[in-house]
What we know:
The chain is mainly alpha-helical. It has a domain at about 45-150. About 90% of the residues lie in helices and about 0% in strands. The protein has helices spanning about 5-15, 25-70, 75-154. The two termini are about 30 Å apart.
Amino acid sequence: xxxxxxxxxxxxxxxxxxxxxxxxxxxxxxxxxxxxxxxxxxxxxxxxxxxxxxxxxxxxxxxxxxxxxxxxxxxxxxxxxxxxxxxxxxxxxxxxxxxxxxxxxxxxxxxxxxxxxxxxxxxxxxxxxxxxxxxxxxxxxxxxxxxxxxxxxx
Length: 154
């Protein structure tokens, strides 16, 4: 009966002849983790700032609503009070929206900066890894060619 070839052994032998340096994978994982940490800091800082803006906006609105609840002598005073409230609310809304826009702008600038820096780092790491792989493969091919020449000579 025909015996089934052991491909697992063949692949193990092949992989043993082409060693892989896992340190490059570890470095890539570390650099990705660092990038993730920096991006998380940017996002959390933006969330904190946005929460502060929202809380201030709510406090401003609530304090102005207190003015609406005050009893007035004339019915026209209620209309004036409501008009003043609407006007002040619109003004405050514009200020707070501008503050939110500043937060978004800072997040965008920080993110772009981090991504550009990460891109440069990744390109440098990729170049180093590629050079190492080429060098290791050339050595492995020379070694395999030397072993094949030795076997052919026998």
